[in-house]
């Protein structure tokens, strides 16, 4: 693969999906951000953001991510996918994290459904699923 091929911006949902997942697996969050549209919409009702969990704009989405992770030490992220269909793709994330104030370690699992428009992620819908915790 030439240098020009490596730096080309992906256009189709399959290319965007592959680049997005590769960025997360490689810990390159800046590259993942480059694949998102500046006016992207994130829908995640369980994150307590109001407006039925809808956040508009990449800056607001990044600020929300910082708010959600401020008290956590992320120890690892397992990424599964992408699962592509037409102009959309899904990715499953499992975060191994520690709540710093309490020392409580837990996994947070979510499935994200992305919509690609014009070679960028225009919409993200987040569905959380955490396995039940076993009693002490």
TrEMBL record:
Gene3D superfamilies registered for this protein in UniProt: 3.10.450.50
Cite the Pfam families for this sequence.
SnoaL_2
The signal peptide stretch is none
InterPro entries attached to this UniProt entry: NTF2-like_dom_sf, SnoaL-like
Domain SnoaL-like: start-end pairs: 18-123
- The entry's protein name is Nuclear transport factor 2 family protein
Protein source organism: Nocardiopsis sediminis
